[in-house]
Structures are given as C-alpha cells and as structure tokens.
C-alpha cells in the first residue's frame, strides 16, 4: 500500500501501524513528535492500534525552538 | 487619522498596493504588536514592523546582547554587546522609523505579568527560543483571546503557524506539553543558519501586517515549514485538538503558569 509521508509517497506492507511507521521511518525521539494522519492527531497511546491504509497521509510535527537543541 | 505628507511618501509603496491602500496603512499605524524575544526571529520581525509603520511595537526580552548573537540577531550591533536587548533593538527601530512608538519591556516575561502585557496589544509575535516560553505565550494568548504568530527555527529548518482565537488550533493542539527538562541531556548549541532566522522572522512580520491591515489568508490551521537546504516550503494542515487543555471546550489550564519552565536552555 502507498502512504504519503511528509508529502512523499512510500510503500509499506498491509497492516503497518503508526507506531511501526515511526520505527520504520527512523523518527528521532518519537515520544516528542506529534503524528497526524489525514489531518487527525494520532496520540502515542493510539499509535499501536492505528493501522495505516492505502492512501493515508501522514505528517510528523517536530518541536522547533530557537538556536538551541533540547534533545 | 490623517496621513502626513511624510507618511504618504514613506509608506507610498504600501499605499500603492490595492490590497493595502490608505485604509490599510492607517490600520497599520493604529496597530499594536508585542514582540516577545528580541533575538533571531524578533529582530527582523520588529524591524519590518517598524519600517511598515506599525504604530506601537512592544519589545520584551530579559537578555543582554552577546557576541554570538550577532550572526543572526540583526537589530543589534557589535557596539551593543553587553547592553539589554530591548534597549539595543528599540534604538534600532526608532532610528529606522521615528514615527513608531517602541515600548521597552525589559526582563523575562512570566506568568505573573504576561496577561497584562498581551492585553495592551492587538497581535503577539513569539520570537522566543525555548519551549516553556512558547507554551506560556500560547496559554496566555488563548486565555486572553489574542492572536499570535508562533515560530521556531533550528539548524536549517524553520516553521510557523498563526493562532486566531476560535478559528483554529493553538500551539498546545499541535504539541500537548513541553518536552520535560529531564529529556534534555545538555543545552549544547545545535546551531542555526542566521539568514534562516530572517526568513522565518519576516514571515511572522507578514502575518502581523496582514492581520492588522485585514488582508489575505493567515496561517491559521496550517503549519508552514521551511527547509533551507532543499529550499522547500511545505504546508501541513493541522486540526484543532478537541480535548485541548487550553483552547478546548473543557479547558483545564485556566491561567498561565511558569511551572513548566525548564532548568536550562532558557534565554535569548
């Protein structure tokens, strides 16, 4: 199935969850990344249950402060 | 309010724009914007607001100018090292446009004074560099019903969004709470390319100018991200969080709080 991740199309196997996607996409410090699928937030407790479907649009929102890094 | 001959000349490139005109310029001259953080984002933002003739500009910052600031914080000069940033930046704005009033708010903005501060302005611009301050500004603006521009920058990337009361998500919708201080192993510098602060700070100034003049579409419900390395902008549609602790229908945050202030990484 094809999923749009940050605007780029990627192919993943059926049944892939949001939690698995965070690992597969090597998202750093995922506990501090907000995930939105099709413009709906998928919070961490739900990430293992949310199975991705063909055509889903996934966005990762990252904390961005100033010229200093926090993690 | 009538425009003087000097104003007509100074703002002629605004006034000639059909979308702004004399009416829009009058609204800018009557507008009041609070810039919190006179650093990388706040410097270009406040300078363009002053140049645009925004009638009253508040500068809030508790820091002094450091040599390492000058790579991006263009409201300050080498001669200003060691001076309060609000003073240094205010002088820059006043030299740029003596017609605008610049209010100096020295000292770090806290939960105790932020509501009084934002109440005096039409629009707030978050130019801070740390998450406790960003959440403090968000919560105060939501509680006060004040629109504001949020922005962040790091390395070669930046992002911004605009909160409009009752019209779209707040910063806490996007990020529920600040990253905990214990998640911060050190406050080492990650670095940021100076001109990136200019790009994002200018975009924030544009949001404030559009809001005051009443034109165009604001970044409400949209997070605009910019990657300077690939030179690419992206727009991420962001929804309202239905159970948001501050802007939701059943808020649990009813007043601004300093309790989330982290032990390090503050300032600028």
Structure description:
The complex is a heterodimer of chains A (71) and B (268). Chain A has one domain: Roll (Ubiquitin-like (UB roll)). Chain A is built from two helices and five strands. Chain A starts with a strand and ends in a 9-residue tail after the last strand. Chain A is 15% helix and 30% strand. Chain A has a five-stranded mixed beta sheet, with no helix packed on it. Chain A is α+β, with helices and mostly antiparallel strands and 71 residues long. The model of chain A has no long low-confidence stretch (mean pLDDT 91). An eight-stranded mixed beta sheet of chain B has the order 3-2-1-4-5-6-7-8, sandwiched between helices. Chain B is globular and about 50 Å long. Chain B has 268 residues and is α/β, with parallel strands linked by helices. Residues 184-188 and 262-268 of chain B have low confidence and may be disordered. Chain B has one domain (12-237): 3-Layer(aba) Sandwich (Rossmann fold). In chain B, helix 4 (42-52) runs parallel beside helix 5 and helix 4 runs parallel beside helix 9 (194-213). The A-B interface holds A 6-7, 29, 32, 34, 36, 39-41, 43, 59, 61-71 and B 37, 39-41, 72, 128-131, 134, 152-154, 157-159, 173-176, 179, 183-185, 187-192, 197, 223, 234, 236-239, 241, 262, 265, 268.
């Amino acid at each position: 199935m094809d999923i749009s991740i940050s605007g780029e199309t990627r192919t993943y196997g059926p049944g892939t969850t949001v939690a698995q996607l965070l690992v597969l996409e090597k998202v750093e410090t995922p506990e501090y990344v907000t995930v939105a699928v099709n413009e709906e937030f998928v919070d961490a407790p739900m990430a293992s249950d949310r199975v991705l479907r063909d055509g889903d649009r996934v966005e990762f929102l990252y904390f961005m402060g100033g010229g200093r890094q926090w993690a | 309010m009538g425009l003087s001959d000097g104003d007509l000349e100074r703002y002629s490139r605004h006034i000639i724009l059909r979308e702004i005109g004399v009416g829009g310029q009058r609204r800018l001259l009557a507008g009041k914007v609070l810039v919190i953080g006179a650093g990388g984002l706040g410097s270009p933002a406040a300078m363009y607001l002053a140049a645009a003739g925004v009638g009253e500009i508040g500068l809030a910052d508790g820091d002094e100018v450091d040599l390492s600031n000058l790579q991006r914080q263009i409201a300050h000069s080498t001669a200003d090292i060691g001076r309060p940033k609000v003073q240094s930046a205010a002088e820059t704005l006043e030299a740029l446009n003596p017609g605008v009033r610049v209010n100096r708010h020295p000292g770090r903005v806290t939960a105790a004074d932020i509501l009084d501060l934002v109440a005096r302005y039409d629009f707030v611009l978050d130019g801070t560099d740390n998450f406790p301050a960003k959440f403090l500004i968000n919560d105060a603006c939501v509680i006060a019903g004040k629109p504001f521009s949020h922005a962040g920058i790091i390395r070669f990337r930046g992002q911004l969004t605009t909160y409009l009361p009752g019209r779209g998500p707040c910063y806490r919708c996007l990020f529920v709470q600040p990253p905990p201080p214990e998640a911060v192993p050190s406050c080492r510098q990650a670095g940021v390319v100076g001109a990136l602060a200019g790009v994002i700070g200018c975009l924030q100034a544009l949001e404030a100018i559009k809001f005051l003049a009443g034109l165009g579409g604001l970044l409400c419900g949209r997070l605009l991200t910019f990657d300077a390395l690939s030179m690419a902008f992206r727009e991420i549609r962001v929804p309202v969080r239905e159970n948001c602790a501050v802007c939701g229908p059943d808020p649990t945050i009813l007043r601004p709080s300093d309790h989330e202030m982290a032990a390090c990484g503050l300032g600028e």
